[in-house]
UniProtKB/TrEMBL annotation:
<dbReference type="InterPro" id="IPR000477">
    <property type="entry name" value="RT_dom"/>
</dbReference>
<dbReference type="InterPro" id="IPR051083">
    <property type="entry name" value="GrpII_Intron_Splice-Mob/Def"/>
</dbReference>
<feature type="domain" description="Reverse transcriptase">
    <location>
        <begin position="88"/>
        <end position="340"/>
    </location>
</feature>
<dbReference type="GO" id="GO:0003964">
    <property type="term" value="F:RNA-directed DNA polymerase activity"/>
</dbReference>
<dbReference type="InterPro" id="IPR030931">
    <property type="entry name" value="Group_II_RT_mat"/>
</dbReference>
<keyword id="KW-0695">RNA-directed DNA polymerase</keyword>
<keyword id="KW-0548">Nucleotidyltransferase</keyword>
<dbReference type="Pfam" id="PF00078">
    <property type="entry name" value="RVT_1"/>
</dbReference>
<protein>
    <submittedName>
        <fullName>Group II intron reverse transcriptase/maturase</fullName>
        <ecNumber>2.7.7.49</ecNumber>
    </submittedName>
</protein>
<dbReference type="InterPro" id="IPR043502">
    <property type="entry name" value="DNA/RNA_pol_sf"/>
</dbReference>
<keyword id="KW-0808">Transferase</keyword>
<dbReference type="Pfam" id="PF08388">
    <property type="entry name" value="GIIM"/>
</dbReference>
<dbReference type="InterPro" id="IPR013597">
    <property type="entry name" value="Mat_intron_G2"/>
</dbReference>
C-alpha cells in the first residue's frame, strides 16, 4: 500500500484519523485478500497518537498505574501530553520502543462465586501505542469479521446478540450448544494468532509491535515476572481485537454454509435441508462466550460440539467442561446476564421465547448494595447514595429490555431496606423519627434521600423490547 496515496484533510486529529480509518476500511472491503503494507506511519502519526491518548485518558482505569507507577494524571501534570507523545513518537520511529510487562491484578468475578479474574494493567505508554495500533488495525479486520460476532466491536452490543438468539429461537432453532472457552485470553496460541494477523498485514514493523505486546510478560502479585508464551492479557486495549481476530476461524467454519453459495445460503436451501431431515445451525458469539443454535436434534448439536472442539484445538483453546452444555431452549440457558427460555404464555397454549434477568447478576447487584450500606460504614452518605444510584441506573438500563418489571420492583424493595437500616444507624434515628422524615401525613412513603441525593428507583425504568437490527454497518461504512 502506498502511504502517499492517503492524503488527509486538516480537520483536526479526530477528523484525520476518521478519514484514515474510512479509507483503510473501504480498501479492505474492496479487496478481501489484500495485505496492507506501510501501516506503521499511521501508527506513529501525531494525530493517531493524540486520539489514542484521549481514549486512554477517558477510560475508567486511566489513573491505575502499570509497572512503572505512572498514571495519566501524572503524565498531564509532570511531563505534559505534547512532550509525552513526542517522546513516544520518537521512540516508535527509531525502533527503540519496547513494551513493559503488564501488572497483573486479580479481581473477584461477579456473582459471589469466589473466583477471580486476572487483569493485566499495561503502562500508560503501552496503552497509548496499543490504542494507536487498534485505531489502524480495527477498520481493516472489521471488513472481514462475521455479522454474528458482537463482543468488543464498534456499533454492537450485548443486546444485539440476545436479540439474534431470540429471533432464531422463535423460528425453530431450539437446541443450543451453550459454550464457553476455558481461559480463552490466557491460552490463545501466539503462532496461530499472528498467522491470522499476517493474512491482512504485511508491514513487518506493525507485526513486530503486535508480537512484542504478546511477549511482554506479566508481573504477578506472587511469583514476580512471568513470561507470556500464550494468550493476550485481559485489560489490554488491543487484547479484545486480537481475540476476535483469532476466533474468526470459529466464525468462518460454523457460518461457511451460510455463504451465498453454501448449503444454507438461502431460505429455500435451509427448508430443503430440513425436509430431508438435515439440521441447520447458526452461531452467536460475544468474545469468548458463544452459543450455537440448531434447528434439528440433540445428536446434531453433539456432532457440532465435537467439530467445533477440533476447530479450536489449533488455537490452543478448548471448551470449559463446567460451563459448556447441550440444552433445549425449553429448559432455558444463561447468556450475557440474561436468562433465555422457550415457554408457554400464561393463560394460553402458545409458546414464545422469553428473555429474563438471570439469577447471577441479580445476586451480584444485591451483594454490591449490601457491601456499600454496611451499618458501620463511615463514608459520606451523599457520596454513597450517588454511587448506589449509578449502579442501579446502569444495571436497570442494561436489563430493561428483558421481561423484568417484577424483578426491578423486587430490586427497589431490596435496596430500600439496607439504606433505611444504614441511615438509622448513621444518624442514630429511631423508627418513628425515620417515618416522620420520609412519609407524608397520610402515611405514604417518600423517596429516601440524604444530603440532597435521592435514592434512584429502578422500577421507574421503562421496560421495552430490543429489536433485532439485522445487518449492522460499521461506523466507517456508514461514513462512506
Amino acid at each position: 500500500m502506498n502511504a502517499g496515496a492517503l492524503t488527509v484533510a486538516a480537520a483536526g486529529p479526530r477528523g484525520r484519523v476518521s478519514e484514515m480509518q474510512a479509507k483503510l476500511h473501504r480498501w479492505a472491503v474492496a479487496d478481501p485478500g489484500r495485505r496492507f503494507d506501510d501501516l506503521f506511519n499511521f501508527v506513529h502519526d501525531p494525530a493517531t497518537l493524540i486520539v489514542a491518548f484521549d481514549r486512554v485518558a477517558g477510560n475508567r482505569g486511566a489513573n491505575t498505574p502499570g509497572v512503572d507507577g505512572l498514571s495519566v494524571a501524572w503524565v498531564e501534570e509532570s511531563i505534559g501530553v505534547p512532550g509525552f507523545l513526542e517522546g513516544l513518537r520518537a521512540a516508535l520511529k527509531a525502533g527503540t520502543f519496547r513494551p513493559l510487562p503488564v501488572r497483573e491484578r486479580a479481581i473477584p468475578k461477579p456473582g459471589g462465586s469466589g473466583k477471580v479474574r486476572k487483569l493485566g494493567i499495561p503502562t500508560i505508554a503501552d496503552r497509548v501505542v496499543q490504542a494507536a495500533l487498534k485505531l489502524v488495525l480495527e477498520p481493516i479486520f472489521e471488513a472481514g469479521f462475521s455479522p454474528i460476532s458482537y463482543g468488543f466491536r464498534p456499533g454492537r452490543r450485548a443486546h444485539d446478540a440476545i436479540a439474534e438468539i431470540h429471533m432464531f429461537g422463535s423460528r425453530g432453532y431450539r437446541w443450543v450448544l451453550d459454550a464457553d472457552i476455558e481461559a480463552c485470553f490466557d491460552r490463545i496460541d501466539h503462532t496461530a494468532l499472528l498467522e491470522r494477523v499476517r493474512a491482512r498485514v504485511k508491514d513487518k514493523r506493525v507485526l513486530a509491535l503486535v508480537k512484542a505486546f504478546l511477549k511482554a510478560g506479566v508481573l504477578t502479585e506472587q511469583a514476580g515476572l512471568k513470561e507470556s508464551d500464550t494468550g493476550t492479557p485481559q485489560g489490554g486495549i488491543l487484547s479484545p481485537l486480537l481475540a476476535n481476530i483469532a476466533l474468526t476461524v470459529l466464525d468462518e467454519h460454523v457460518m461457511a454454509p451460510w455463504r451465498p453459495e453454501g448449503t444454507m445460503g438461502t431460505t429455500y436451501r435451509r427448508h430443503a435441508r430440513r425436509r430431508k431431515g438435515l439440521p441447520t445451525w447458526r452461531i452467536v458469539r460475544y468474545a469468548d462466550d458463544f452459543v450455537v443454535l440448531v434447528h434439528g436434534s440433540e445428536s446434531d448439536v453433539e456432532e457440532l460440539r465435537e467439530e467445533i472442539a477440533a476447530v479450536l484445538a489449533p488455537l490452543g483453546l478448548r471448551f470449559s467442561p463446567a460451563k459448556t452444555r447441550v440444552v433445549h431452549m425449553s429448559e432455558g440457558f444463561d447468556f450475557l446476564g440474561f436468562r433465555i427460555q422457550w415457554r408457554r404464555k400464561r393463560g394460553t397454549q402458545q409458546w414464545y421465547v422469553y428473555t429474563f434477568i438471570a439469577e447471577r447478576p441479580f445476586k451480584a447487584v444485591k451483594e454490591k448494595i449490601r457491601s456499600m450500606t454496611h451499618r458501620v460504614s463511615q463514608a459520606d452518605p451523599g457520596a454513597i447514595l450517588t454511587r448506589i444510584n449509578q449502579i442501579l441506573r446502569g444495571w436497570a438500563n442494561y436489563f430493561r429490555h428483558a421481561v423484568c418489571s417484577h424483578t426491578l420492583d423486587s430490586l427497589r424493595h431490596f435496596v430500600e431496606w439496607p439504606v433505611i437500616r444504614w441511615l438509622r444507624k448513621r444518624h442514630r434515628m429511631r423508627w418513628k423519627q425515620l417515618r416522620r422524615q420520609f412519609t407524608t401525613p397520610s402515611g405514604r412513603w417518600l423517596p429516601l434521600s440524604c444530603n440532597g441525593v435521592v435514592l434512584f428507583n429502578p422500577a421507574s425504568v421503562t421496560v421495552t423490547r430490543y429489536r433485532y437490527r439485522g445487518a449492522i454497518p460499521t461506523p466507517w461504512a456508514a461514513s462512506d
